[in-house]
Design brief:
With 451 residues, the chain is of the alpha/beta class. The strands form seven sheets. Strands 14-17-20-23-26-29-32-35-38-40 form a ten-stranded parallel beta sheet, with no helix packed on it. The longest helix is centred in the middle third of the chain and has 21 residues, at 223-243.
């Protein structure tokens, strides 16, 4: 059960807090993915205002429950009480604590089962526990209370073990405990932390799993804290790839998402952002100042100062600088794409060269094709998109306009400045331009000399 009804007021955001991103991914997505990896199959999400936005951020299998009134964490669990009806065990987590891990969830659950606990809290030890609820234990080591900072005695404030806000419950106990919740406090809210007191009253066992990482307790209530989470996550990912043999000589502006895979020997240069399900092969150079989202790059390729979204690049290809591969672009081995080239929803065959200042959209291009400067595939007539087909080893002259749908055959040649609006046969030359006419002395006196 993920508690995700918090608003974004302190974030100065119009969207729910759990949708604020850490390393380009909503915080609640981090938490759900940890649950899935830990083997938790049925997930309930308790959302408030902005529930539709939250629904878009989690997987379609999640059950969305609306907490119309925000009356505390205990009340949020009450709202999703139907999740307890099947019995078994249930985990309750905060949707804005992105660093909870599958390993911690699994280890805490193993302890929960082994000790036959009604409640197992995930705890951590902090050098500076100020502001967190302290874990009070009995002489035998069981948890006897969670004491909030404002209610703690001087002795209790010295306790360094704190509550992370993640719990495992025996579902039958939590169902029973909900009827014992009271809102007898200044805020008129129901607190989930009261389960410890209720469990002790019902003579049920409560214990805590003390995890080694203190990051599990970290959340964000403002933009400053959110930046801190991003810094931690960014450094983690960079260290992971360095350990795997990726060369990141300078990490200035380098951001690598958690779902990115990079093979050893590849160099990531400053200012590079790798996001989504991106995979990069061996011995590539990515950057400086490149952005790749949901894309794949083969071994030995370079992506220099360019954008690439939902596209693939083969091996030993060179892209950039200042190129853009838009969704649906498939660049084969050995292709060269130069500066100020845009490719969209097109396949570019092996060892084709598109040097500069060219737009290739909705096209199928063969192998060994050469594009001169300023070529445009004219793919849109204002209502529909059409495809252009170019055969192997064709030569497309500078400033050629290819009016789709049109086909240029194998080995065909278009003269510079040609507008092609009908198919060009194999090995043919297409010339489609007005013949040059010279009028001698016509310009004399018509151009004002500035020097």
């Amino acid at each position: 059960m993920l508690l995700a009804a918090g608003d974004g007021k302190r974030m100065k955001s119009k969207q729910p807090k759990v949708l604020c991103e850490v390393l380009m991914k909503p915080m609640i997505t981090w938490v759900e993915q940890a649950c899935r990896k830990a083997g938790i199959e049925e997930v309930y999400v308790v959302a408030g205002a902005g529930a539709e936005q939250v629904k878009q951020a989690v997987s379609p299998e999640c059950n969305i429950v609306i907490q119309s009134q925000r009356r505390g964490t205990g009340h949020a669990v009450m709202t999703a009480a139907q999740a307890l009806e099947g019995g078994g065990d249930v985990a309750v987590l905060n949707g804005d604590a992105p660093f909870i891990s599958a390993e911690v969830l699994a280890a805490a659950y193993a302890q929960h089962i082994r000790q036959h606990n009604a409640v197992t809290l995930v705890t951590a030890r902090l050098q500076e526990p100020f502001g967190y609820g302290r874990i009070v234990r009995t002489e035998s080591g069981e948890v006897s209370a969670i004491v909030e900072e404002s209610d703690a005695t001087q002795q209790e404030k010295l306790i360094d073990e704190i509550n992370s806000g993640t719990y495992w419950f025996k579902a039958s106990f939590l169902q029973k405990a909900l009827s014992h919740f009271t809102a007898d406090n200044a805020q008129g809210e129901y607190y989930l932390t009261d389960v410890v007191k209720i469990a002790r009253k019902l003579q049920e066992r409560v214990d805590g799993y003390a995890c080694h990482s203190t990051d599990v307790v970290l959340g964000a209530n403002d933009r400053k804290a959110l930046k801190m989470l991003n810094d931690i996550a960014r450094n983690r990912e960079i260290e992971r790839h360095l350990s795997n043999g990726v060369d990141i000589p300078f990490d200035d502006g380098v951001i690598i998402g958690t779902d990115v895979h990079i093979a050893p020997g590849t160099k990531i240069m400053p200012g590079t952002i790798l996001a989504g399900n991106t995979t990069i092969g061996e011995n590539c150079v990515i950057g400086p100042n490149s952005y790749l989202m949901d894309s794949q790059v083969g071994d030995g390729s370079s992506i220099i100062a360019s954008y690439m979204t939902s596209s693939t690049v083969g091996c030993a290809a060179t892209i950039g600088p200042f190129s853009q591969l838009r969704p649906g672009s498939h660049i084969m081995d050995g292709v060269k794409i130069g500066d100020f080239v845009e490719v969209k929803n097109s396949t570019i065959g092996e060892k084709t060269s598109i040097a500069h200042l060219t737009y290739i959209g909705d096209s199928d291009v063969g192998a060994g094709v050469n594009f001169g400067c300023g070529v445009v595939t004219v793919n849109y007539d204002g209502q529909n998109k059409f495809r252009t087909t170019i055969g192997d080893h064709a030569f497309i002259g500078c400033n050629t306009n290819l009016i789709a749908p049109v086909k240029v055959g194998d080995g065909a040649y278009t003269a510079a400045g040609t507008t092609v609006d009908e198919d060009v046969p194999d090995d043919a030359l297409a010339i489609g331009r007005v013949r040059q006419e010279i009028k001698k002395h016509w310009a004399k006196g018509k151009i004002k000399k500035k020097i």
